[in-house]
Amino acid sequence: MKEKPPDQQQNNAPGQSEEEPGRTPQGNLSPNTAEQPSRPYVSNPLQVFLDSLKRLFTVNFATFLRFAGVMLLTIIVVSGAILSAGLRTVSNTGNTTNGNISDIITINNITGNLGELAWAAIGVVVVLAWGVILQAAWKTYVIETARESRISLGKAFSSGVRKAPGLLGVNILFFGGFLIGLGLLIVPGLLFLYWFVFARHVYIDTDASILQSFRESKKLTQGKLRELVGLASATLVLGLPGAHSGFGTFYQILFIPVNSLAWAYRYTSADMLQRTETPKPETHVANLVLPCVIVASVVLITLALAVFTPSWY
């Protein structure tokens, strides 16, 4: 009989029957792991991107299209509001230039300006709040899609509204800690990024608090530095066509969601290994080759610029 992979073998622990192989262990913070299919851990970052591309078109594709529509509508509304505010400012400036000094400095003008500033502040707060809700809903979508679990747009946004305030706190701690770490001779910042790269995923996916999300992220990343560096290197290499002035924009429309799914898979696969207490498989060589290729390319480009750039002194 063909032997099953480690993550598909029957669990003989007490209290778990054959009908419940995916039962969540006691103490696990994630409510969604019971829906996660049992799949082998993929170490190759290029294969992760390829699998994520397939999932984009085969899992929750209708939800993705609806999400894209919401994103497009948001861009149109925000751009229209900015354009309208700009035109109004230009119009007011023109009226002020053509007016008399006595007409400019009036109580009505001061009150009107304060009113416009108040509306502008409210608009900024609304846009920022909506942006965090969108981010939380998108994280929910990519995590469930990486697990190949069905999710509707309504369910994603329901999670987004519920998780948005806490996600804002996670974002502030994450980016604040990262920037402070970079200021401390760079290395602490990179270490902070490595430990807590999954903090936002954990917060969206589980019932963990803000601080618990950081602690759980650190657990999930232990022993996976090479896979994370490999995936970051693959992101950089595969994202380069997006810098093209011609088709770069269209490339990014496809690359951004695939990249999000790839990182969500790296999180869900790390969660799967921890849940099932399965040892991490051998690290694929691509996780070592890709960073070396990037470093070698940077060195060669730097040397080429140093040699061929004319000296002006």
Describe the structure.
By secondary structure, the protein is an all-alpha fold. The protein has helices spanning 45-58, 61-98, 101-104, 107-146, 153-183, 187-196, 199-205, 210-221, 225-239, 248-276, 286-308. Helix 4 (107-146) crosses helix 5, helix 7 (199-205) packs across helix 8 (210-221) and helix 9 (225-239) runs antiparallel to helix 10 (248-276). The longest helix has 40 residues, at 107-146. 24% of the residues are buried.
Q: What would you say about this model in short?
A:
It contains eleven helices and no strands. With 313 residues, it is mainly α. It is globular.
List keywords for this structure.
0% strand; single chain; disordered N terminus; 313 residues; mainly alpha
Write the layout of secondary structure elements.
Layout: H1 45-58, H2 61-98, H3 101-104, H4 107-146, H5 153-183, H6 187-196, H7 199-205, H8 210-221, H9 225-239, H10 248-276, H11 286-308
Helix pairs in contact: 1-9, 1-10, 2-4, 4-5, 4-7, 4-10, 5-6, 5-7, 5-8, 7-8, 9-10, 9-11
